[in-house]
Amino acid sequence: QVQLAASGGGLVQPGGSLRLSCAASGSTRTINTIGWYRQDPGKERDFVASITSSGSTDYADSVKGRFLISRDNAKNTLYLQMNLLKPEDTAVYYCHARTYNVMDYWGKGTLVTVSS
Questions:
Q1: How far is CA 30 from CA 9, 34, 82, 116, in A?
Q2: Are strands 10-12 and 18-26 parallel, antiparallel or unpaired?
Q3: Structural contact between residues 112 and 14, judged by C-beta atoms closer than 8 angstroms
Q4: What gap in Å lies between CA 72 and CA 54, rounded to an integer?
Q5: How far apart are CA 90 and CA 48, in angstroms?
């Protein structure tokens, strides 16, 4: 079992920055890929970014060049540095982990609001 706890959401003005954190606990050594999804009310949950245990990263086209995903394995913590934020980045952001045996885990979301 893997537990995920996301934090760092809030209100930010367009063009601003915010950093999300996701603390992983439990069977963290079983995690292969960990990342972020986001969801607007009434819409599907969309992929944002991910990073594998070997450090390979992947980003949604909409956030490439603006968001940076990283992980601190010693602290079992995932980060998402979000820069040049736009109103369309407003959503609830969820931390997601997939284990080597393809089990999916989700944390509770953290709300990011980009508005002036």
A1: 27, 11, 27, 41
A2: unpaired
A3: no
A4: 12
A5: 12
Parallel/antiparallel/unpaired status of strands 31-39 and 2-7: unpaired
Query: Alpha-carbon distance 32 to 29, whole Å?
Result: 8
> What is the C-alpha separation between 48 and 59, in angstroms, rounded?
6
pLDDT tens per residue across span 23-42: 999 999 999 999 999 999 88
pLDDT band for position 67 (cuts 50, 70, 90): very high
pLDDT digits (tens, 9 = 90+) for 1-29: 999 999 999 999 999 999 999 999 999 99
Element of type H or E holding 110:
strand 110-114
